[in-house]
Design brief:
Layout (H helix, E strand, L loop, with lengths): L2 E6 L6 H7 L1 E3 L6 H8 L6 E6 L6 E14 L23 E16 H6 L17 H12 L6 E8 L5 E17 L12 E6 L2 E4 L1
Parallel strand pairs: 1-3
Antiparallel strand pairs: 2-5, 3-4, 4-5, 6-7, 7-8, 7-9
């Protein structure tokens, strides 16, 4: 069994909402990396139900995956904020999983509290990912889909474990060419490496 951290804004859908409905599709995901991970989920996998966009963010309860490969119906609803004009019934773009309610925690468990626990230091779901920025993902995809795509001047910043910048590469006229993600086993305390290859004119180091 694998363990996944799944995020939802509580004012939109909370652990209390899942407890009331019992089973619900995890719709509204419009991040390609999140979709990638959902497609790797299996029936029976455990879910840490994370409340995001609150202070502090953290896990409010538990759920489990009960169905995979579920088409996200919101992509077809023109008045829905998750509407996707490129999607068709024949070629849907967004899919998800259905999750079932398991439990609500008696107290809110913040991410900082979990990261501070010695036994959870190497837990993969608590690691901060590299390509979580949806703008980076959109930029990568646009290079292959948009005929009018133009190269960009970008900054690549190396940070320490506290999120403090150590070194910056200023890359001129960059074009993404390849994006690779290493294999992930959620049962192991391993590191997932994401690599984006670029072509460019030149770069400087600060």
């Amino acid at each position: 069994m694998n363990y996944w951290l799944m995020k939802s804004e509580p004012d939109e859908f909370s652990i209390a909402d899942l407890a009331r409905k019992q089973v619900e599709p995890w719709t509204g995901v419009r991040n390609y990396m999140a979709r990638f991970h959902m497609r790797a989920m299996q029936i029976g996998d455990a879910v840490l139900f994370h409340h995001s966009s609150v202070d502090p963010p953290g896990v409010a309860g538990l759920a489990k995956v009960v169905k995979t490969g579920v088409i996200d119906e919101k992509q077809f609803q023109k008045r829905n904020k998750y509407y996707e004009p490129r999607a068709t019934r024949e070629k849907p773009i967004w899919d998800c999983v259905e999750v079932e309610y398991v439990a609500t925690f008696p107290f809110f468990v913040s991410m900082d509290r979990m990261r501070a626990h010695p036994a959870l230091t190497d837990m993969l779901v608590l690691k901060r990912g590299m390509l979580t920025d949806s703008q980076v993902i959109k930029w990568f995809l646009a290079a292959f889909r948009d005929r009018e795509f133009k190269p960009a001047d970008i900054n690549v910043i190396l940070m320490n474990e506290k999120g403090e910048p150590l070194r910056t590469w200023k890359v001129a006229h960059a074009i993404p060419k390849k994006w690779l993600v290493s294999d992930m086993n959620a049962n192991e305390s391993s590191v997932v490496i994401e690599t984006m290859e670029l072509t460019y004119r030149y770069f400087t180091i600060q």
